[in-house]
Amino acid sequence: MSEAPEIVLVLARADxxxxxxxxxxxxxxxxxxxxxxxxxxxHPMIMGRKTFDSLPGxxxxxxxxxxxxxxxxxxxxxxxxxxxxxxLRLVAAxxxxxxxxxxxxxxxxPLARRIELTEVHRDAEGDTAIxxxxxxxxxxxxxEDHEAAQDIPAYSFVTFRRRIGT
Length: 166
What we know:
The chain is an alpha/beta fold. The chain is 19% helix and 34% strand. It has four helices and ten strands; from the N terminus they run ββαβαββαβαββββ. It has helices at residues 30-40, 49-54, 84-91, 102-108; strands spanning 6-14, 18-20, 45-48, 64-67, 78-81, 95-100, 114-120, 128-129, 138-146, 155-162. The strands form two sheets. An eight-stranded mixed sheet has the order 5-4-3-6-1-7-10-9, sandwiched between helices. A two-stranded antiparallel sheet has the order 2-8. Strand 3 (45-48), helix 2 and strand 4 (64-67) form a beta-alpha-beta unit. The two termini are 25 Å apart.
């Protein structure tokens, strides 16, 4: 593919910035898993090795491109890349979803055109956090709010688009 793909960051973040704990998610939010499936299905996904290892298995209908510094690493069903450029060369699609972790999202953030963020409206304990999208660079273009119910916290699905010229 000669044209660079649209890079989309897909992540869920608690109000205090936490995105992970002990290699997993610090909340149980079934609607977010359904949303994740809906927006990633049919697209290649780039992720770090720890994110790949945290998956319950290969996710159907999506290519798994794993960005790792370990040149000996191989995961069944995964394509391996060792830097951003080689990962993007593997994509061969108009859109690629970058699904984590925090370091991988940080590497792709300067290249991303869109962020699909699930805001989990609570503070969460965790060991991995990221900042909220900077309004100087990102414009909110869509929001779908959901109220808390039983043991499920309130949450919002938010789409951001990179501001022109940033």
